[in-house]
Design brief:
Radius of gyration: 21 Å
Order of helices and strands: HEHEHEHEHEHEHHEEEHHHH
Shape: elongated
Number of strands: 9
Structural class: alpha/beta
CATH architecture of the largest domain: 3-Layer(aba) Sandwich
Strand order of the largest sheet: 4-3-2-5-6-9-7
Distance between the termini: 61 Å
CATH class of the largest domain: Alpha Beta
Helix content: 25-40%
Length: about 290
Amino acid sequence: MKNLASISVIRDILEKSGFKFSKSLGQNFLTDENVLTKIVSGAEIDAETNVIEIGPGFGTLTQRLCMAAKKVVCIEIDQSAIPILQDNLSDFDNLKIINADVLKTDLKKIISEEFDDGIVKIAANLPYYITTPIIMNVLESRLNVDSLTIMIQKEVADRIAAKPSTKDYGALSVAVNYYSEPQIITTVPPSSFIPQPKVSSSVIKLKLREKPPVDVADEAGYFKVVKASFGQRRKTLLNALSNSPSIPLGKEDILKVLQKCGIDEKRRGETLSLSEFADISNGIFAGR
């Protein structure tokens, strides 16, 4: 079995297939075996685990996943990569390859039809340009999956894992932490890919929560408060909320809500915890 993480093997495949890397699809294939091992071990994939892989490329990570998991279903948008994937991974009978756009794919249906039993996890080396939409689509869909272990741009991973009152903390931090528990597994330099990206990457694991860490009366309202609070970062919380068309209260009523919650109206959104956002949203949207 050829080692798909080998640069010489990848170059040989490129030469024989005539495959061209697509900048528009953000194709950067991982060639670092140590990082591949960390992804599989960090995701805690074993013989009882089912895996959905997003964007397998040539199958570098897929090969490791198939060796460790019960079954792997990979979703690849690039039609020109499909025959290469099929050839590279022909030794595995626990693999299904789907040529599709993951954002237009019914993942709930795939889980129901492809996996009889066992835990389902998602693994991926995600294209930078579409990282956040894929993450939020999976989380908001509330799929029956245990976790996502994904390679993403380091800057985005830092934002996801950020704590209140830090420069990286924002709406993405709040949203991802509402649905999951993030853990950065490792940082990956550009030299670990072919072709090399211009920035560093991180492997991050998002362990999905059984239920959110805070109780909210209106989930949509909760995220309206979060979005409004970060929409104008230089403004005080009171001004940011009162200036937002998504918040159905006037400035005086918003002030009363903040006072009732014991939150200083001069604070800014980046200082608030998930529970403080919940208190504010419950004060604004409860009973509406």
